[in-house]
Design goal:
With about 180 residues, the chain is of the alpha+beta class. The protein contains five helices and nine strands; from the N terminus they run βββαααβββαβαββ. The chain has one domain: Gcn5-related N-acetyltransferase (GNAT) (Aminopeptidase).
Length: about 180
């Protein structure tokens, strides 16, 4: 959706938790995510494309309610343009781990990343988890700077990338 604010147009997208009826659009966005940024996610485009629709639908249904796992989408009406997930960790009950963050290229720089993180943060607080954590591939300076602008701080912790042994990820935290 586009709104006119005088001399400039501002695009808006509703940030909300994914719903079961979003499964096909969420699958399309997932495939875009994996094609655009293959190192940022934990599955390959080929694996995701081979997964049947009913598995996507089951995952969306699982994350559409409850306090343990959620997927938030940016919906301008039509094609989804962003995603951010949140999940619990058994080691730190006051922490939400943010995962699978993505903004489609034509929406980058629009403030959508912050809106998606705010959606996860509000859900995290409502579930009694006051802190957020995310991981960024070391060397992905664009993402690192974007998260810094959103208040995330580098913890100094480095962990091996779960799929690519030659890469490391850095952990960043902020209050929810």
């Amino acid at each position: 959706m586009t709104t006119d604010t005088g001399s400039t147009s501002v695009r808006r997208a509703e940030i909300r938790r994914g719903r079961t009826e979003d499964a096909a659009r969420m699958r399309a966005l997932r495939l875009e995510m994996l094609a655009d940024a293959p190192l940022a996610f934990l599955e390959t485009l080929a694996d995701a494309a081979a997964r049947p629709h009913n598995e996507y639908a089951a995952r969306v249904a699982y994350t559409s309610a409850g306090p343990n796992n959620a997927q938030f989408v940016a919906d301008p009406g039509g094609r989804l343009v962003g995603h951010a997930g949140g999940t619990v960790t058994p080691d730190e009950p006051g922490l939400t781990v943010i995962y699978a963050v993505y903004v489609t290229p034509t929406w980058r720089g629009s403030g959508l990343l912050g809106d998606l993180i705010d959606g996860v943060a509000a859900w995290s607080r409502a579930c009694g988890r006051p802190e957020l954590l995310l991981e960024v591939v070391v060397g992905n300076d664009r993402a690192y700077r974007a998260y810094q602008r959103l208040g995330f701080k580098d913890t100094g912790v480095r962990v091996p990338h779960p799929k690519i042994p030659a890469l490391n990820e850095l952990q960043m935290r902020r209050p929810a």
